[in-house]
Amino acid sequence: MPVRLNLRKAFPALLALIAATAGCRIDMHIQPYYRTMAESDFFSDHRSARMPVDGTVARGDLRADSYFYTAKIGTATGDYMPFPATKEVLDRGRERYNIICAPCHGRVGNGNGFIPTRGFRQPPSFHIDRLRKVPVGYFFDVDTHGYGVMPDYAAQVAPRDRWCIAAYIRALQLSQNATGADIPAGQKIPSPAPQFRDIGTGATLPVAEAPSASTEGEPK
Ligand code: HEC
């Protein structure tokens, strides 16, 4: 015959059992501890928390590669990438640039973004002499700290992406200022450079015009 447990009758016994076993662990439940920032008279400085040992670094925040995070060598801005500017890096740079920078700076970097048409100050073109001569780290630096009325994008753009954008701006500069002399000797241009009609808002790419008969074949 199965043993039937009458809960109503067993209840006081269960209660006693719980009380007795819980009682055994009472000193584990009530432990001496300090609330955060509470004062203590145990240590001579009256802080309950100890200061971290000198030189302690928060995990994941060592930032030992300072050039990667600052683009600076001492106080000077560096003119090299902290990692190779591969096609993937430039693709990533283009994607980020088109999302974050192009609304103001325009897709080709001429400062013809959409936002300046609504009253924000027009940024300078990246293709002026002064900005063509700045070291590549300068773009990282402006992105990290802002410049004039331009806010910084340190919170929105991770350091690696800031470098990708910097590399892409260099590519834009090259693209807008390339001459026949930039073509390696003996190499032919497979097709004439497209003629663009800039429709001016920068929110969209300039429209390519249909190549006319005279521009077909070898570039002029
Ligand atoms: C909200 C609009 C806006 C966005 C978005 C923006 N910029 Fe700018 N940027 C400006 C303006 C305006 C200036 C000129 C600031 C001034 O002269 O006060 C400027 C200037 C610059 C300059 C030139 C500094 C100089 O020496 O003249 C660089 C380089 C630059 N921006 C890079 C970037 C990059 C890279 C991004 C994207 C991560 C970006 N900007 C996003 C508005 C913007």
Known CATH architecture of the domain at 77-176 and 196-205: Orthogonal Bundle
Helix content: 25-40%
Strand content: under 5%
Total number of beta strands: 4
Q: Main beta sheet: strand number and arrangement?
A: 2 strands, antiparallel
List the secondary-structure elements in sequence, H or E.
HHHEEHHHHEE
The CATH H-level superfamily of the domain at 77-176 and 196-205 is Cytochrome c-like domain
Which radius of gyration do the C-alpha atoms yield?
32 Å
Which tags fit this structure?
mainly alpha; two-stranded antiparallel sheet; two-stranded antiparallel ribbon; 7 helices; 36% helix; 4% strand; binds heme C
Provide a brief overview of the structure.
The chain is mostly helical and 220 residues long. 36% of the residues lie in helices and 4% in strands. Strand 1 (72-73) and strand 2 (76-77) form a beta hairpin.
Describe what you observe in this structure.
A two-stranded antiparallel ribbon has the order 1-2. It has a two-stranded antiparallel ribbon with strand order 3-4. Helices cover 36% and strands 4% of the residues. The longest helix is centred in the middle third of the chain and has 19 residues, at 87-105. It is built from seven helices and four strands. Mean pLDDT is 86; it is low at 214-220. With 220 residues, the protein is mainly alpha-helical. It has a domain at 77-176 and 196-205: Cytochrome Bc1 Complex, Chain D, domain 2 (Orthogonal Bundle), CATH 1.10.760.10. It binds heme C. The site of heme C has 20 residues, from helix 4 and helix 6. Residues 100-101, 103-105, 115, 120-121, 123-124, 139, 142-143, 147-150, 153, 157, 165 line the site of heme C.
